[in-house]
Amino acid sequence: MDKKELINNGKVKSVYATDNPDEVIIEFRDDMTAGDGERKEVMDNKGAYNAIISTKIFKVLEENGIETQFIDLPEPNIMIAKKLEMIPIEVIIRNIATGSLIRKYPFAEGSRLEPPIVQMDFKADEYHDPMLNDSLIKALGIATQEEIEILTQKALKINEILTKFFADAGIILVDFKIEFGKDKDGNILLGDEISPDGCRLWDSETLEILDKELFRKGKDSEVMNAYIEVYNRVIPDSEKVI
After folding, report:
1. Would you tell me how many other CB atoms lie within 10 Å of the CB of residue 181?
2. Alpha-carbon Rg of the chain, whole angstroms?
3. 201 in Cβ contact with 166 (< 8 Å)
4. From 112's CA, which of 27, 42, 76, 230 has a CA 20 to 30 Å away?
5. What is the pLDDT of residues 213-236, one digit of tens each?
6. Cβ of 108: how many Cβ atoms within 10 Å?
7. Cα-based distances in Å from 237 to 153, 231, 232, 233
């Protein structure tokens, strides 16, 4: 399948049209960014590792009843996906208190959140992704109350599936962000990616960081080792391509 015109050039991924109007090509680039893109580096094979990890996760979710936009991964960093009209909401699930949550609220670092917190942020770099509530979402015309409830239910189900998936690999799923979109029939599907770029992942025994937080902390030399560690733990040898 050949790339056609560029539809969207994001901070770390590029989306292209294809001959099929209902499908797109998503290219996972090797860019690494932080601070709304203010800091940027390029890391060898980072895009491929994220694409393969995302593919595995999407397949696991599909097997457990979560519809995603994933279709195929013909190359390590190239994903063929269903074309979606993305909903401009980042849905964040928090299982353990850390990061911005403990900076803004009186939670103890590392405390488990039961039930998990479901947070929704407005996906808009120019506004620095502010937190939303139901009233703001409806006032902005982003989603209906019914759609908000669907996003919440899907996110909690995804969290349940992935918490076990990562636990089986010796990894704690601390928190993660996901995005959804609508297909041509108006169905809400999981889109974008789920990878160490958008998850906080800690080693179950050592609590060692295995995600993008290393880049935010300026530990650039450790980032790809962490991503490769996640890849090695969650991708069976028979499915490894890099």
Report:
1. 19
2. 17
3. yes
4. 230
5. 999 999 999 999 999 999 999 999
6. 8
7. 33, 10, 8, 9
Q: If we measure between CA atoms, which residue out of 69, 43, 47 comes closest to residue 178?
A: 69
C-alpha 159/C-alpha 165 separation (Å) is: 10
**E strand spans, the chain:** 6-9, 13-17, 23-28, 31-34, 39-42, 70-75, 78-82, 85-86, 89-96, 112-122, 171-182, 188-191, 199-203
pLDDT digits (tens, 9 = 90+) for 27-41: 999 999 998 778 999
pLDDT digits (tens, 9 = 90+) for 84-119: 999 999 999 999 999 999 999 999 999 999 999 999
The pLDDT assigned to 1 comes to: 72
Asked whether the beta carbons of 137 and 119 are under 8 A apart, the reply is no
Instruction: Return the SS3 of 224.
Output: helix
Q: For 157, how many CA atoms within 13 A lie in the half-sphere containing its CB? A: 15
- Pairing state between β 171-182 and 112-122: unpaired
- DSSP string for 181-197: EE-TT--EEEES--STT
Report yes or no on whether pTM surpasses 0.90. Answer: yes
User: Of 234, 197, 241, nearest to 53 (Cα)?
Assistant: 234
Dihedral sign for Cα 175, 67, 190, 81, please: positive
Q: Which residue carries 């590392």 as its tokens?
A: 110
Residue-wise pLDDT tens digits, 113-141: 999 999 999 999 899 999 999 999 999 99
Residue written as token pair 């980072």: 46
